[in-house]
From TrEMBL:
Annotated source species: Desulfitobacterium dehalogenans (strain ATCC 51507 / DSM 9161 / JW/IU-DC1)
InterPro entries: Metallo-B-lactamas (IPR001279), NDM-1-like (IPR050855), RibonucZ/Hydroxyglut_hydro (IPR036866)
Keyword Secreted included in the entry's annotation: no
Domain Metallo-beta-lactamase: 20-217
Record protein name field: Zn-dependent hydrolase, glyoxylase
Pfam annotation, one family: Lactamase_B
Alphabetical keyword list: Hydrolase
Keyword flag Hydrolase: yes
SUPFAM superfamilies, sorted: Metallo-hydrolase/oxidoreductase (SSF56281)
Single GO term (MF): hydrolase activity
């Protein structure tokens, strides 16, 4: 897996379309390091740990989750650090932790429209052995915002209004002017790909103080680019 450096202390791994593996980020503080999202499996976590160790970076002490979708959370059981998620994310994870991961149960969830086809297909691709799926809640949960001092760099977790999912958390590093927006700029796949334009507008006003924006499944973009993307979504 390829790891790229964005600023002095910010790194990210590339996304992989095949099994819907999102970008994972890494912020290297003097005292602690923080990973953003846990990836979609143990394998994804292992590849990430290998990539950061090739850079001479230690394993993350903390792992912050952007939202509940499987591709961002199913690696949570395989990370070694302390995991942090918003209360709403944790509620959904607690619900999914009770689900059974068998072919027939997954088909039932598809029929009941609890799960979507795209996620079902990708989960089956990532997990040839469905019984290996483990869903866990985070060690720490928060409401609203949270600030973490990693030593020489402070990371802010903001729960934001997003059309993608109601639990979306953005990770902002003011000192580096970098924003990890996850999938927040996107339609709600679990609600017929509905795009709530009011929520998109509040997302636009919420994200102002940054230069780089890293999304879950695309190359990092500048502030101007992300505002253009949001603008064209609004015009749809
Ligand atoms: Zn998502």
């Amino acid at each position: 897996m390829e790891l790229r450096q964005l600023t002095d202390c910010v790194f990210y791994s590339m996304y992989n379309k095949e099994a819907d593996r999102p970008i994972l980020e890494y912020i290297n503080g003097q005292k602690y390091s923080l990973m953003v999202d846990s990836g979609n499996s143990k394998k994804h976590v292992e590849l990430f740990n290998e990539a950061i160790s090739n850079f001479g970076l230690r394993k993350p002490n903390l792992i912050a989750i952007t939202h509940w979708h499987w591709d961002h959370t199913f690696g949570m059981n395989a990370v070694e650090g302390v995991t942090i998620a918003h209360k709403k994310t944790n509620n959904k994870l607690a619900e999914m932790a009770k689900w059974k991961w068998t072919d027939s149960e997954m088909k039932k969830r598809l029929e009941a429209k609890v799960e979507i086809k795209f996620a079902d297909t990708c989960i089956r691709k990532e997990y040839p052995l469905l019984s290996e799926i483990r869903v866990t809640t985070s060690d720490i949960s928060f409401n609203g915002n949270m600030e973490i001092d990693l030593g020489d760099v402070v990371v802010e977790l903001h729960h934001i209004e997003s059309p993608h999912s109601e639990d979306c958390t953005c990770i902002f590093i003011p000192q580096e002017r970098v924003l990890f927006i996850g999938d927040a700029v996107g339609v709600d796949y679990y609600n017929n790909c509905y795009l709530d334009k009011d929520k998109l507008c509040s997302l636009i006003t919420a994200i102002e103080e940054f230069d780089f924006c890293v999304m879950g499944h695309a190359e990092p973009v500048s502030k101007l680019d992300i505002l253009n993307i949001m603008g064209s979504l609004l015009e749809r």
